[in-house]
Amino acid sequence: MTDTNHATPNPAATVGKVVKSEAEWRAQLSPFEYKVLREAGTERAFTGEYTDTTTEGVYRCRACNAELFRSDQKFSSHCGWPSFFAPLAEDRVRYIEDGSLFMKRVEVRCGTCDSHLGHVFSGEGYDTPTDQRYCINSVSLTLEEKA
């Protein structure tokens, strides 16, 4: 589940992936989006547009538009960020051990463009099918509302 290899992927491993230069990402994203998505920043708790959203639809990566989560996987954790109990599929995200801030956490990144999304936590006692909380920055997502 954990990927600690930060080496540049070989061309065969990038099939179906979005690969851009940092200059291209800076041109595409706002400064705050870039800070969170490309530099693993975090938005302040309870400030994101999707924290309390209950709209049905698909949550996509703001950087590459990949489908990541569905609204029926979202739950109210009262933590200040949108929370999901599972990604749409395991290949939609990748995991990296994160030892920053004197904690052991697991970072969640987009499986398509490698943008930072947030972190996943386990064993917190939420009544969800997976007992996991994908704590995701709203600024890392867009919501495609169900028609």
UniProtKB/TrEMBL annotation:
Q: What InterPro entries does this protein's entry cite?
A: Met_Sox_Rdtase_MsrB, Met_Sox_Rdtase_MsrB_dom, Mss4-like_sf
Q: Which reaction does it catalyse?
A: L-methionyl-[protein] + [thioredoxin]-disulfide + H2O = L-methionyl-(R)-S-oxide-[protein] + [thioredoxin]-dithiol
Q: Which UniProt keywords apply?
A: Oxidoreductase
Gene3D superfamilies named in the record:
Peptide methionine sulfoxide reductase
EC number(s) reported in the record: 1.8.4.12
Is Membrane there in the keyword field? no
| Domain MsrB: start-end pairs | 22-146
Q: Which SUPFAM superfamilies match?
A: Mss4-like
Q: Which domain of life is it from?
A: Bacteria
Q: What is this protein called?
A: peptide-methionine (R)-S-oxide reductase
Q: Which organism is it from?
A: Microlunatus aurantiacus
